[in-house]
Amino acid sequence: MARLIVTTFVLCIVIACSDSSVEDELLVSAAASLTDAFGEVESAFEEENPDVDVVLNLGSSSALREQVLEGAPADVFASANTSNMDQVAQAGELSGEAEIFVTNSLQIAVPTGNPAGVTGLEDFAREELLIGLCAEDVPCGDFGRQALENAGISPSIDTNEPDVRALLTKIEAGELDAGITYVTDVLSSSGTVEGIEIPAEVNVVAEYPIATLAGVRNADAAAAWVEFVLSDEGQAILTSYGFTSP
């Protein structure tokens, strides 16, 4: 009996110690264009909240929306457009109101040195060039097509990529002569691609909403994350990556 009591006592100590060292996990599903910025936000947030382990789930906003609607675990959703967030809200999957936390604009991205001599959106109609866009159901693909339509351009598209980072990777590798990404993606490339401005009168401004989800597992941590993203410190990090405060 004494041996049983001692064993039980030791086991309880081990469990207690284990529990005290386990961090609260916070799963944030975020648009691929937020990859670098949210990576730094994550580090700053965890420094202020050492008991919270942030896990970033990055991808196209439409794919993340479908994950949420199909019941995949997530605590916070940050989308690159309002329509995907609206669909999540209409399905009753938000625990509160979504808030716009940054905006972003489009830019033409070309490989370093611009070997094809691309100068503007009109070059997207040149059949001899290798042109890439994001897929139509992805925010950067939708916005890119809007900008081309605004400019009266019928593009000759060679590939439709699943998200903006996949498109950027092909441009960096020289597999494409040009593509339409966000200003922030060109900036994050650190010189591996060059950006060509899209005139403001045809450009599209993307609004990024953020919200906690109905299935949130750690409501306090999720609320703290959203608050941090909206804070002066969070906004300073985001704007340093080329985003604009709303």
What's the SSE blueprint?
Blueprint: H1 2-21, E1 24-31, H2 35-48, E2 52-59, H3 61-69, E3 76-78, H4 82-90, E4 99-111, E5 131-134, H5 139-150, E6 159-161, H6 164-172, E7 178-182, H7 183-188, E8 193-196, E9 205-212, H8 219-230, H9 232-240
Parallel strand pairs: 1-2, 1-3, 5-6, 5-7
Antiparallel strand pairs: 3-9, 4-7, 4-8, 4-9
Helix pairs in contact: 2-9, 3-4
CATH architecture of the largest domain: 3-Layer(aba) Sandwich
Number of helices: 9
Q: Report the CATH C-level class of the largest domain.
A: Alpha Beta
Low-confidence stretches: 1-22
Mind explaining what this structure looks like?
The protein has 246 residues and is an alpha/beta fold. It folds into two domains: 21-103 and 208-240, 3-Layer(aba) Sandwich (D-Maltodextrin-Binding Protein, domain 2), CATH 3.40.190.10; 104-205, Periplasmic binding protein-like II (D-Maltodextrin-Binding Protein, domain 2). 41% of the residues lie in helices and 23% in strands. It has helices spanning 2-21, 35-48, 61-69, 82-90, 139-150, 164-172, 183-188, 219-230, 232-240, and strands spanning 24-31, 52-59, 76-78, 99-111, 131-134, 159-161, 178-182, 193-196, 205-212. Strands 1, 2, 3, 4, 5, 6, 7, 8 and 9 form a nine-stranded mixed β-sheet that branches. Helix 2 packs antiparallel against helix 9 and helix 3 (61-69) packs parallel to helix 4. The radius of gyration is 22 Å and the shape is globular. Mean pLDDT is 91; it is low at 1-22.
